[in-house]
């Protein structure tokens, strides 16, 4: 298939814009004639003209084209539409014969009906209007279908009939190009000459690679040296002085698109862009990079601090375990001591003499220091043991506190005060703490930090403060400026202007308090109904016996007939190669159109390479082995395809196409309407803890791994979310 000039839409998208529905419900919603319409149609004498005018009237309203234009594009009148219109008029589809024989008749009817409806045909003078409509829509997206739909909507609102789909596509393409230039200009317009020069210098060679390529390399393993490297990169980004307010000058989706392009494209490829696009891409990338570097430093520090206390607890446990034999021996001595004292009381003998004869006073004196050591080991707080790894903390903590700006509400003011004091101590080089040093951590640690002489132990205080800061960051009580993962909690919420229409559409109360009160009343009513039915023993599988609620488990039982049917169906399925299946699904659903070039937005021209790359991702085979196992594709082709077309948003868009195709199948409706959800998570354990050694999960402990949460509908397919 030859590629069209200014191609913005796929063939299926072009058909969709001017699509005529075939389902009865959609036909009824769009093409039901009102009495005034029947009057206009009935004014024609011949039956063919009546049906022809009815179709003209229907098409002018939706999708907004003339019958002549429809016949020119499709070559025939859709039978479903003609039959629906004829049914309302008591006519037959065959009455339409010879209506289109004379072009002038159709043209005259279309012009007359358009005038009645207040519509007019498109002209060349409307092209700038269409381009501007495309530009407004393209301000937020590069998706061709969305932009073309915006143009169609603008034409309908202006009461202008739709031109040819090629004209709409060319105007949409021109509007997108104009929007791209304006978006790029909005990001770089206020940059100073020094900032522009600094952006251009990022492509200069620095030790074998450009500065931009070096910035992209973020260490992963949790090590103090890696935190310092991350903070060095963070300072380099901040030195350019790009204001985060620049991101708000363009649409959020456009900004994320620039970010994705900056992340995925190598530095040498970005350098080839025209200056405006190159600098806009780098600006967006650096704004995003500042947040990612901040989060990486905090996450790595979180793991290191956690590992310090985890190792302290493990060392304490090992130390206590080594005393197990001594504990057993000392417990025997303790038992003999109790027995000797009990016998002395019963017989009236002197307790000391009885104890010396039975256990031995010297034995007790020798056991005394051992008992003291074991008791001290058992009661030792992990904070004290963690002080042994103070040197590790000092390798990164001062740099981290100096580089990041922590903020908190009034409830965590002491935490911020402790951070500020620690910063001052690091800057001045002082070691001793003032007597009124803030202690935001828990009371048990305060007793440990302050010695018997009333002085504060600097090492213990610093470890306790940093550990407390870690907990506050995790809870959200303390947040960090220019962070995505540790930002202020209410920044995750919708603003009141954005939330108001959603609240109204869902029929929710205006305040959370009213909603909680309403839900509380409903819950109380449901619990009372449940209690009444439980008391009557009217709940299937649920009983209340011996002050305990007993629920019978639901077991899946497959009948012999069901298993026989499953085996029969399985035998009917053809045995095909996975590659053949992928090609067939791609042809049936068209999901490959979702994988567009990151820079140009064009679909992938090499279908075999794209499917092989997707299969390599799905099977974790890797591009090299996939190329070796495939015919007609090379490793170089797969590498290029993966870098240019494979992204998270591409997979999400492809999933949406597949799910929509699945829902259109009549067979899927046997299971449900697709609105009931079954959600569950799967945890996959790793071979070792690795970089997450300091993490503790409430359910899985310190086991390293990942949890994937999926949402499946009752049509046996995941939701597109």
Short description:
With 721 residues, the chain is mostly helical. 60% of the residues lie in helices and 4% in strands. The protein contains 33 helices and six strands.
Record the SSE blueprint:
Blueprint: H1 11-17, H2 24-31, H3 35-42, H4 47-61, H5 67-74, H6 79-89, H7 103-116, H8 127-138, H9 144-157, H10 165-188, H11 193-201, H12 211-216, H13 224-240, H14 252-264, H15 267-271, H16 275-321, H17 324-347, H18 351-358, H19 361-379, H20 382-386, H21 390-394, H22 397-403, E1 406-408, H23 413-428, H24 443-449, H25 458-475, E2 478-480, H26 496-506, H27 512-535, E3 542-545, E4 548-551, H28 560-572, H29 578-589, H30 607-619, H31 623-629, H32 635-645, H33 648-664, E5 677-685, E6 705-713
Antiparallel strand pairs: 1-2, 3-4, 5-6
Q: How would you describe the overall organization of this protein?
A:
The chain is built from 33 helices and six strands. Strands 1-2 form a two-stranded antiparallel sheet. It has a two-stranded antiparallel ribbon with strand order 3-4. It has seven domains: 11-185, no CATH class; 209-302, no CATH class; 319-385; 405-492, no CATH class; 496-551, no CATH class; 560-664, no CATH class; 669-713, no CATH class. It has 721 residues and is mostly helical. It starts with 10 loop residues before the first helix and ends in an 8-residue tail after the last strand. The longest helix has 47 residues, at 275-321. Residues 689-694 have low confidence and may be disordered.
